[in-house]
Amino acid sequence: MHWHAYTWLGNGADLAREGERRPTSPDFHTSALPPMRTGLWLAKPASRIAETFDDASKAVEWMSQTFGLHGVAEGQIPLESREALAADLLPRGVDVQWGEWLPGGRFITVGMVCCPNRHVSNPCPVSR
């Protein structure tokens, strides 16, 4: 198993455009918006992958650093709690998605998607 990292940072109001976030939409593949289900990131173009990891602990570290780079300090859920849960879930094949509202109505989402994925049938978007 390996993990693909995905991020989105944008106007939180844009998340209401749910049609673009569903794979049944003709705009799904070209939309920058995150999908409604975390595992469906795998259905997006491979160019959306921010990083790929073979080590779950490195994946969790990347998630924490990425959150920090965008000014997310603690938010509603302490970072230490997020990290502990992700470290438990990723090796067991469960996708992890973190999201937080930022000043000015912006929203950030940082996701780590297991590949192969047991929640969606999409194949790995990259040759390994």
Key attributes of the depicted protein:
4 strands, single chain, 128 residues, four-stranded antiparallel β-sheet, alpha+beta
Summarize this, please?
This protein has 128 residues and is an alpha+beta fold. It has helices at residues 56-69, 79-89; strands at 2-11, 51-53, 96-102, 106-115.
Task: Give an overview in words.
A hairpin with a 3-residue loop joins strand 3 and strand 4. The radius of gyration is 14 Å and the shape is globular. The termini are close together. Helix 1 packs antiparallel against helix 2. The longest helix is centred in the middle third of the chain and has 14 residues. With 128 residues, it is α+β, with helices and mostly antiparallel strands. It is built from two helices and four strands, in the order ββααββ. It has one domain. Strands 2-1-4-3 form a four-stranded antiparallel β-sheet.
Percent of sequence in beta strands: 15-25%
* Number of E strands: 4
Low-pLDDT ranges: none
Spatial strand arrangement across the major sheet: 2-1-4-3
How many domains?
Answer: 1
Largest sheet: 4 strands, antiparallel
| Radius of gyration of CA atoms, rounded to a whole number | 14 Å
Helix content estimate = 10-25%
Number of helices: 2
**Termini gap:** 11 Å
Q: Give the overall pLDDT as a whole number.
A: 93
Class from secondary-structure proportions: alpha+beta
List the helices and strands and how they pair.
Blueprint: E1 2-11, E2 51-53, H1 56-69, H2 79-89, E3 96-102, E4 106-115
Helix pairs in contact: 1-2
